[in-house]
Design brief:
Length: about 375
């Protein structure tokens, strides 16, 4: 299943009053409060903390301040937690243009994705262009495609191995960032070129940029500790595996709990490639919140437990999501449109597990 993104359209004539009212009320909140929609001092502090969470344990290992095997492996796990934090709380807002009102700041902070082995350029195409526009639309939204042995929508082909996906899916979630740093970006850059998202003229530059950043990443994360420092190679390789497994597990659950849930929709366009909904209503139908009462959890995950707010207003920094969520929920109730929320993180994981199991057992 594969569709040209440009061929899929929304019916913008539906529910126009809801969209207009919602935008007006959210804008009014920032005007009345005299608050900028971008980041604040909280974002500065958080950025320092997340980078420290990644680099402090890295330097403790590289300087051989800590040398015992198990403490070193634990530090690699902390690095993985920091890597996920950088992605959730810094890179994400920056590449949406929400971190700062200054584009250069957003660009620099967005490159934190490349710093930890990914590609900000490709991420923006996959996430901002495809996922945020065509959320949960099979064949267009690559966030619900996944590897073939996982089935995330009722529209994907059912295979026998899917019957067991509720058993092994957490393990594959932990492998997510391995795909990013090793093969995904290279496959994706050519796929986006075929889809028309990257021009032939841009392709060569993009490939060379990806290679350069990955060489830098593997240089400092693996080459230096293995070939330059007097560190056990086996411990370094195992630590590298732990780093990415921890990071992949965190990132996968945060994003999957927002869209692969029992009460969200997985709409398909009609024969004329039109989705019978306007874009804003589509986001409400395909997105869910969770763990909104936990301030600490929300702080670490960059407010992405408020996915409804993020999808409707991705240009607003996540530090404001908790405040505007009340406006969005009230407006949704007034216009009788969905506003999905799943309570605690544990409850959301349970609901996600049930749906993964259902998709594995039911062909249609």
């Amino acid at each position: 299943m594969n569709m040209k993104p440009t061929s899929v359209k929304f019916n913008h004539d539906l529910n126009k009053e809801f969209t207009k009212t919602l935008k007006s009320r959210v804008n009014e909140y920032f005007i009345k409060k005299n608050v900028d929609k971008h980041g604040n001092l909280n974002m500065v502090f958080k950025s320092i903390f997340m980078f420290a969470l990644f680099f402090v344990p890295y330097f403790l290992i590289m300087t051989e301040t800590v040398t015992s095997t198990f403490p070193v492996l634990a530090l690699w796990g902390v690095i993985g937690t920091g890597m996920a934090g950088i992605g959730l709380s810094i890179m994400h807002d920056a590449n949406h243009g929400a971190y700062s009102k200054f584009p250069i700041v957003n660009k620099v902070m967005g490159l934190s994705m490349d710093l930890v082995g990914g590609s900000a350029r490709l991420w923006k195409l996959q996430h901002n262009v495809l996922h945020h526009t065509y959320t949960n639309v099979a064949g267009v939204d690559e966030d619900v495609e996944g590897p073939p042995i996982l089935r995330f929508t009722p529209h994907h082909e059912h295979m026998k191995i899917h019957k067991y996906q509720h058993i092994f899916f957490p393990f594959l979630y932990g492998l997510m960032t391995f795909g990013w740093i090793i093969w995904k970006d290279f496959l994706q850059v050519f796929r986006f070129n075929r889809k028309g998202l990257i021009s032939d003229k841009e392709l060569k530059k993009d490939v060379l940029t990806i290679i350069a950043w990955k060489a830098f990443y593997f240089g400092y994360i693996l080459i230096v500790p293995i070939f330059v420092l007097d560190l056990p190679t086996g411990t370094t390789l195992l630590g590298f595996l732990i780093l990415h497994f921890v990071c992949g597990l965190i990132l996968s659950f945060i994003f999957q709990l927002a869209h692969v849930m029992p009460d969200v929709d997985f709409p398909l366009p009609n024969d004329e490639s039109i989705i019978e909904s306007n874009w804003a209503i589509h986001q409400l139908r395909t997105t869910a919140n969770f763990s909104q009462k936990s301030r600490l959890f929300s702080w670490y995950v960059g407010g992405l437990n408020y996915q409804v707010e993020h999808h409707l207003f991705s240009g607003i920094c996540h530090v404001h999501y908790r405040h505007i969520s009340k406006i969005i929920k009230a407006t949704a109730e007034e216009f009788k449109v969905p506003y999905h929320a799943h309570g605690s993180f544990i409850k959301a994981v349970g609901a996600h597990y049930k749906l993964i199991r259902a998709f594995g057992r039911t062909p249609s």
